[in-house]
Design a protein that fits this description.
Chain A: This is Crp/Fnr family transcriptional regulator. The complex is a heterodimer of chains A (about 240) and B (about 80). Chain A is built from 8 helices and 10 strands. Chain A has about 240 residues and is of the alpha+beta class. Chain A folds into 2 domains: about 130 residues, Jelly Rolls (Sandwich), CATH 2.60.120.10; about 100 residues, Orthogonal Bundle (Arc Repressor Mutant, subunit A). Helices cover about 25% and strands about 40% of the residues of chain B. The chains are: A alpha+beta (about 240), B alpha+beta (about 80).
C-alpha cells in the first residue's frame, strides 16, 4: 500500500543505500499531513522550528526577499524532499518555504526524528548526505546565476528538475509537470518576467524545450543539457 | 490586472509577443520593459559587434502601442 512517506524513502534511496530496517523506521514516524494552496507558507523566515516537513505531493519553493521587496527563489522542492531538514540543528530558520502549487506536506516532530536517528545511525549518515547534496545544488545554482547566459540558466533548471523528478520515480518521460509561473522562473533565474518569456521562446524555436501552463516537454535532451552545461555529478545520485 | 505585450527587436529580428504578461499598471510595465532591455543588452552586447541596437515596444490588450524604449550601443574608434 502506498504510504505518505514512501516518497521520502524513494528520495533517500536515490542518493544512497537504504536498508530495509530504515524503511520500516521511516514508515513508523508519526506525521501530520496538511494541504497548502499556492502562496501558503510551510515555514517562515525567523520562525523557531520544532518540526520539519516532507513534500508528499506538489512543489515548495525556498525564497528570501530584499528590502525593496524583490524576491529571489533559491530552490524548488518536489515530492520526497525535506527542504527544512537543517532546522533540526539550526532551529531559527533564515528563509521562507512556500507552496508553488497546491501541495501536500507531512510534518515530523524534531524529537521523533532525533529518536529515530539515535536508533539508526546509518540513517543519520543518509540525511547528512541529503543536506550535503542540497548544498552542492546551491553551489551549482550560484555559479549559474553569476556566470551563465539566460538560455543556459533556463536550460539547466529544466535539466535539473527532469533529473531530480526522474531519480525518485515521479516521472518517466521527457514530458512532465513543473508547476511554476513565468514570474517564479524569473525570480529563480534572476531575470525579468519578459526576459524569462523571451528565453523560453528562444529555447522553443531552437527545438529544445516547450514550457507552458506548468507543463514542460524536453524536445532534445542532448542539446538542452549541452546548452545548460548540465552535468548531473553534483546531484550525487546513488554514486556511493 | 491588465496584460501588456512586449515586442522586442534585437537589431536583427522582431519577436512579437503573442502571450503578454499581467502587471499591476503602466508604471510596472515601464519598469519591466526597462529591466528587460538592460538585461538583454548586458547579455548580448558582449557577444558580438561594436554596434547594437535594441528596442522594446509595449502594447496593451487592444493593440495600442503605449511606449517604446530604445537602447543603442555604439563604439567610436580614434
Amino acid at each position: 500500500m502506498q504510504e505518505p512517506l514512501d516518497v521520502l524513502i524513494a528520495k533517500l534511496a536515490s542518493i544512497g543505500r537504504l536498508l530495509p530496517e530504515y524503511e520500516t523506521a521511516i514508515r513508523q514516524l508519526p506525521i501530520r499531513v496538511s494541504q497548502l494552496d499556492r502562496g501558503d507558507d510551510a515555514v517562515m523566515e525567523g520562525q523557531i522550528m520544532g518540526h520539519c516537513c516532507v513534500v508528499i505531493e506538489g512543489l515548495l519553493q525556498r525564497h528570501k526577499h530584499m528590502q525593496d521587496g524583490s524576491r529571489q527563489i533559491l530552490s524548488f522542492h518536489p515530492a520526497g524532499d525535506i527542504p527544512d531538514l537543517q532546522s533540526l540543528h539550526l532551529r531559527k530558520v533564515d528563509y521562507t518555504l512556500s507552496a508553488t502549487t497546491p501541495t501536500t506536506i507531512a510534518t515530523i516532530r524534531h524529537s521523533d526524528m532525533q529518536a529515530m536517528l539515535r536508533k539508526h545511525p546509518g540513517l543519520t549518515d543518509l540525511f547528512w548526505r541529503d543536506t550535503l547534496v542540497d548544498a552542492a545544488k546551491f553551489l551549482t545554482w550560484m555559479m549559474l546565476i553569476g556566470q551563465a547566459s539566460a538560455e543556459a540558466r533556463m536550460a539547466h533548471l529544466f535539466c535539473e528538475m527532469f533529473m531530480r523528478l526522474k531519480s525518485v520515480g515521479t516521472i518517466d518521460s521527457f514530458e512532465f509537470p513543473f508547476k511554476v509561473t513565468q514570474s517564479d522562473l524569473a525570480d529563480a533565474l534572476g531575470m525579468s518576467i519578459v526576459h524569462a518569456n523571451r528565453t523560453l521562446q528562444e529555447l522553443r524555436s531552437a527545438g529544445l524545450l516547450i514550457f507552458a501552463s506548468g507543463q514542460a516537454e524536453i524536445l532534445d535532451w542532448p542539446r538542452l543539457s549541452e546548452l545548460g552545461q548540465f552535468d548531473p555529478a553534483y546531484l550525487h545520485l546513488a554514486d556511493e | 490586472m491588465p496584460r501588456y505585450y512586449f515586442d522586442i527587436h534585437d537589431g536583427e529580428r522582431l519577436a512579437v509577443d503573442h502571450v503578454g504578461t499581467e502587471l499591476d499598471d503602466l508604471s510596472s510595465a515601464r519598469d519591466e520593459a526597462t529591466r528587460t532591455l538592460s538585461e538583454i543588452g548586458a547579455e548580448e552586447i558582449p557577444r558580438d559587434g561594436p554596434h547594437r541596437e535594441f528596442a522594446i515596444a509595449v502594447r496593451d490588450d487592444s493593440g495600442n502601442v503605449l511606449f517604446e524604449l530604445r537602447l543603442t550601443f555604439h563604439t567610436r574608434s580614434f
